[in-house]
Amino acid sequence: AYSDIGLVGLAVMGENLALNIERQGFSVAVFNRTGEKTTRFLAGRARGKALAAAYSLPELTGLLRRPRKIMLMVKAGRPVDEIIGQLLPHLEAGDILLDCGNSHFEDTRRRNARLAQAGVLFLGVGVSGGEEGALNGPSIMIGGNEEAYRELAGLFNRIAARAAGTPCAFYFGPDGAGHYVKMIHNGIEYADMQLIAESYHLLKAAVGLEAEEMAEVFRTWNEGELESFLIEITAEILARPDEESGRPLVEMIRDQAEQKGTGKWTCQSALELGVPAPTITEAVYARGLSALKAERVEAARAFPGPNPRYAGDKEKFLAALRDALYAAKICSYAQGFALLRAAGQAYGWELDLSRAALVWRSGCIIRAGFLDRIAEAYGKSPGLVNLMLDPFFRERLNRAQAGWRRVVASAKELGIATPALSSSLDYFDGYRTADLPANLIQAQRDYFGAHMFERTDRPGKFHVVWQDEVQGAGNN
Ligand code: 6PG
């Protein structure tokens, strides 16, 4: 009998997704570049299940029911193009190809155009939730050919995580829409992680808490408005002792963060679209700075800063830090959603922002209680220009403001770097300032480059000869 779907790439995510799909009642044919992996999988975790092995791509396509559906779970970048190139001669018009890796949305747009010429229907699918999610229910962000989506909607809905009974699998629009939404998920993931890391740093260096006490703080936070997967695992991480040294394991881990590029792509897109996303960008920079370990060790000797210990009331500081973390988190989501909005317009996707919040409610890394609120905000007003202006978040920001300012001001005084907490506050303050000093920038631009400026009292573009004292003003 033919298999329902093919899957290429048996790294952990691929294996787990194959097992998830099979468990939902679909038969799967699998292929991996190195055949031993396939044999091992079939004899191991896949034993006795409706999984068939293929040892070449023609064999794989031969095992599939028409129209064929093939899921690619290979490393983003060149490998995806290579596999598509090798598969194409064995596909026919109407077959469906799904790229489920963390591909760049521009690559997805390009591949979509190329495959459309061959009549192959292409889907660019963002899958979040790590190994566990792939196996037991990921969050699925789908983009590409809508007919192909309809063909596979049933499968997506079955294998996805659920939030309040609704599958976290949504179609977002043509070509790169799904991968774009996944990219923004990852940008927000970077910001969330950095904000939590800065909070941990303040708890440790400023408040002087031990790991187990910090775990308790995060556990408590996880019971309130900050409730989220990342806060939850942070509490667990802080509570874990190292078996060798007996010390908290987290303290034994080198402080150099790595990255695979999706956060960077989010910042690049922000610059490209002209959408400010400082919290996300600072989170990427912070990983870059952390990687400069040897330089930092050297600089630590060169620049002894102030005493980092906070002298004031600890309980008050903890409450203020919780507010700061929550407010800054709202800012980073506001930036992510502003990007979705701008990209939807720029690429013609008509992205539904409330769906983006819904798709992230379960299964993915940034799953959090407050995504329900975001979904509500965009559900009520799809044209909302910035999440911060939604009545619910407006009230929260107003309430959290004072504590947030105290935390950032203290961090500056104590010499503790808080790039994401601080830049969020600057984003907030800049956004709520009716009169920014950009008038001076315009004047400077006009001074040195005759770049023209607009006036506040009448329409038009104006230029002034700034250096000529005699002729002075008014030359337009
Ligand atoms: C997910 C994650 C995942 C990502 C890792 C690592 O949604 O499951 O976003 O796709 O690859 O989190 O990313 P970095 O190596 O860049 O930290």
UniProtKB/TrEMBL annotation:
It comes from the Bacteria. The keyword NADP applies. Pfam families: 6PGD, NAD_binding_2. SMART domains: 6PGD. NADP(+) binds at G9, L10, A11, V12, M13, G14, N32, R33, T34, V74, K75, A76, N102. GO terms for molecular function: NADP binding; phosphogluconate dehydrogenase (decarboxylating) activity. The active site is at K182, E189. Residues 178-467 form the 6-phosphogluconate dehydrogenase C-terminal domain. Its EC number is 1.1.1.44. Catalyzes the oxidative decarboxylation of 6-phosphogluconate to ribulose 5-phosphate and CO(2), with concomitant reduction of NADP to NADPH. Belongs to the 6-phosphogluconate dehydrogenase family. This is 6-phosphogluconate dehydrogenase, decarboxylating. The lineage of its organism: Bacteria, Bacillati, Bacillota, Clostridia, Eubacteriales.
